[in-house]
Amino acid sequence: MSKLPNISTSIFTVMSKMATEHNAINLSQGFPNFPVNERLTDIVAKLAKENVHQYLPMSGYPPLLSKIATLVDDSYGRIIQAETEILVTAGATQGIFTTILTLVKTNDEVIILDPSYDCYEAPVLLCNANPVRVALNDDYTPNWATIEKVCSSKTKMIIINNPHNPTGKILTKSDFEALEILLEKYPDILLLSDEVYEYITFEEKHISAHTREKLLHRCVIVSSFGKSFHVTGWKVGYLVAPENLMKEIKKVHQFLVFSVNSICQVAISDYLDLVSVDEIGKLYQEKRDYFRQLLKESRFELMPCEGTYFQVASYAAISNENDVDFCKRLIIEHGVAAIPISTFYADGKDLKLIRFCFAKDNTTLEEATKRLCAI
């Protein structure tokens, strides 16, 4: 008997498989196709011959933990304790899974804001707990009154994703103020803040939960070196949480993973001495602007993109099809793969919107948009 009877193959896998079968340009899955920075690959090449291939401490490579603490301080002005408040994870998804598995119990409720990343619900269900899916407004802002209505003594956690996948929205100061007022009314609710795209923001920097003093004692923050440094296949992320929560999360982590890839941790630790995270947003803003410019003459309507490396577009002027069927036809007839936004909703809400990933080299973006402008 399945523990996840209503969960099937992810839409990312489906669309990428179709893209391969039809030789389509894959703008569906969120990974870069351009080369990794040579400074990082040079570090890896050097380390391959050094003694860095055995287990590292369960919490993470100590110099990397120290540099994460410095990074958080430099980025957000928050002082954290490297030994007790940071955990290196096998990717952000493992960090999310471990956090939920640790802190959520049978019959608890976890509020998930739709459209939402598909890895949030599964661990909640595996805890025999109840996901409570609440749709964002159609402009992808949170409706805090609606969110408050579903809060109760059973609510254990609220998950926020900022910058937001798939929409590219970032939360405002008033959003955080509303969240803090809500959590004051429910002192037992924990916050899981998924901030894997924290360094991929554009005109406005995102407001991190790291900067919200009222939230720090009850918040687990998820980050991703894979996203920040264009090495998604390395699967290296990290969690920051107060010591009392982190102590429990580490208990579960040690039996899921024990320790994370050693050479990758050491390489990232060394790389942090050479790179500025300020470079990351500039790189992706150039790609966002180029992609939007190339689509200017298309029939797609481009939604605002404040962060992440995803661009949401409306195809309402092109077709009345549901978004899943449109995306399949886009692959088969036009040779471009995208992701239907309805699949990020519990109820399959269809606003005739699809998501493109613009974390691609310029040649790929140019050929993809040429095809899209021909529709």
UniProtKB/TrEMBL annotation:
Domain Aminotransferase class I/classII large residues, every copy: 24-372
Gene Ontology CC, one term: cytoplasm
Keyword Transferase: yes
Cofactor list: pyridoxal 5'-phosphate
CDD domains with a match to the protein in the record: AAT_like (cd00609)
Entries under Pfam families matching the protein: Aminotran_1_2
Gene Ontology MF term list: kynurenine-oxoglutarate transaminase activity; pyridoxal phosphate binding
InterPro entries given in the database record: Aminotransferase_I/II_large, Kynurenine-oxoglutarate_AT, PyrdxlP-dep_Trfase, PyrdxlP-dep_Trfase_major, PyrdxlP-dep_Trfase_small
Domain of life: Bacteria
Keywords, sorted A to Z: Aminotransferase, Pyridoxal phosphate, Transferase
Family per record: Belongs to the class-I pyridoxal-phosphate-dependent aminotransferase family.
Identification of the protein by name: Aminotransferase class I/II-fold pyridoxal phosphate-dependent enzyme
Organism: Flavobacterium gawalongense
